[in-house]
Design a protein that fits this description.
The complex is a heterodimer of chains A (148) and B (146). Chain A is elongated. In chain A, 78% of the residues lie in helices and 0% in strands. Chain B has one domain. Chain B is elongated. Classes of the chains: A mainly alpha (148), B mainly alpha (146). Chains A and B meet through helix 1 and helix 3 of A and helix 3 and helix 4 of B.
Chain lengths: 148, 146
């Protein structure tokens, strides 16, 4: 990999961290990192004057995110091909786990409004696992670029 | 590959130009208009931007900029001779776009004067990204060695 491409990937990793920070800030401001916050946001709370979310409203947020998440994960993780991690089982596990965590994160709002309040835990857990895996992938890429 | 890359570069150029026009009408591209959008004006009955609206805007900006600049820089690096000047252009474009995003956040939460830095960096990265797209198009069509 040439030096110029390494710069390009380094900047992409910086953007990825910014994206995670903005996502976490948005989650905190709009929903809040608590089971009660998640439950109130999706199911509504008349005491706090919060209206329940409809399936239409959820779809408007979810639809662009489905593609964006897929694209972002693919772009970020495909850089692993250019590192020493490419043939390791760990990398394959990382790819599967990231997509599974993302699927849980995206589908849990629907499970909350149509299934059970219990999935509020899934929403928070999915978000935290997704962010942790992206951070770990970023660190993996960063360390292999630095040591290469 | 030439028609595919040409099409992508053409659409990138369209996006960069369109972004300036859309921001001009919706958000503002100069400090006065941006200040009005972010903080509102009681005299003109303009409400300030809410925290969640601002963060949604910032979040989308990060995603679009990262995808566009990654694609554009990959093509630019591939087609250029990887000279110091071209690496410098890539670095300035990327750094100015990151600084523009951080300045926007800082202007909303810390100090409104960061809007000036945002405007400066916004124009720097748009100009350089347009140059990168035009240079790559020129290389694709007029450089016989490609």
């Amino acid at each position: 990999m040439t030096k110029a491409y390494k710069y390009s990937i380094l900047y992409f990793l910086s953007f990825s961290i910014l994206l995670l920070i903005s996502g976490a800030m948005l989650f905190e401001v709009k929903i809040g990192f608590s089971v009660v916050g998640v439950r109130d946001y999706y199911l509504g709370n008349s005491d706090k004057f919060i209206a329940a979310k409809s399936a239409d409203a959820l779809l408007k947020i979810t639809l662009p995110h489905i593609f964006s998440f897929g694209l972002f994960i693919m772009v970020l993780l495909h850089f692993l091909i250019f590192t020493k991690e490419r043939y390791k089982a760990k990398s394959r596990f990382l790819v599967y786990l990231t997509f599974i965590a993302t699927f849980i994160e995206i589908s849990s709002p629907f499970l909350i409004i149509y299934g059970s309040e219990f999935f509020a835990y899934g929403k928070i857990l999915g978000f935290i696992i997704f962010n942790s895996l992206i951070l770990y992938s970023t660190w993996l890429l960063l360390s292999s670029i630095m040591n290469d | 590959m030439r028609p595919i890359l040409s099409g992508l570069l053409f659409f990138t150029l369209l996006y960069l130009m369109g972004d300036v026009f859309v921001k001009h009408s919706n958000f503002g591209i100069f400090s006065g208009a941006i200040n009005l959008t972010l903080f509102g004006d009681e005299d003109q009955f303009i409400d300030p931007l809410t925290h969640s609206s601002f963060l949604e805007f910032w979040h989308m900006e990060i995603f679009f900029i990262m995808m566009i600049l990654l694609t554009l820089s990959a093509i630019f690096i591939r087609l250029s001779d990887k000279s110091k000047k071209q690496i410098l252009i890539t670095n300035i474009t990327m750094l100015s776009s990151i600084i523009s995003l951080l300045a926007l956040l800082a202007s909303f939460y810390l100090w409104a004067y960061f809007i000036e830095l945002y405007v400066l960096c916004f124009f720097i990265w748009h100009t350089l990204a347009s140059y990168m797209a035009l240079f790559s198009l020129w290389k694709l069509h007029y450089d016989k060695s490609i």
